[in-house]
Write the structure tokens for this entry.
Amino acid sequence: MASKPTVLLPIAAGTNRNQDLADAFVAAGADVNQIPLQALRDGDAKLSDHQMLAIPGGFSYGDALGAGRLLALDLRTWFEDQLLAAAESGMPMFGVCNGFQALVASGLLPGETAPAASLAHNSNGNFECRWVELSPTDSQSPWLAEVDEPLWCPVAHGEGRFVASDIETVEELDLVALRYSSNGVQAVGEYPANPNGSVNDVAGITDSTGLVFGLMPHPENHIWARQNPLRGRSNRGTCLSLFESGVKATKG
């Protein structure tokens, strides 16, 4: 029997959604190593010992200097060589909420050849905690290989508004993976379907390879039907297919 791929899940001070994310990847068929950043700095584990990197949500370092920026600085300062080597090897990478912010702030998303992007304060100035619908695009990202219907999961952020210096080029490069929608129809900027005012209703993006993927909503919080607040009153499926796609991507 083939061994399970192993996911490296780094933990920083302020990370608080790591167990949820670990549970999601375990349910999708992976093993997960949750390792504090200090242990990674000390060399107790290496990214190359794993088949995937997954950065969880939370408020890393209390969001000092802005969402995900200090975690991004940590990634660039301590692990840049490992990250570049992993990216060149085709390792799938995943970042959710604060982890997505860190991937964007570090430059891993949308990538060096793409226009600059950022996650700004929600357009209404409020912290948004609500369930949203996400529709997959025509992206060929391996992360969407098993996703054939809209996803339903919660958001919980104050700085989740996706902005880009050149959104037209981001679209032309097919870097948008998920959009906020309502009943399968793009939200076209309408609140609350688009909870933060993201340009073009962007909820998640990839790099040019499709292997580095990040999103603001929390699909790890709708893996089991019992997590759906509308269970019994809704036929919306779970988000497990997203994680199953990522795990399969580690196998080539």
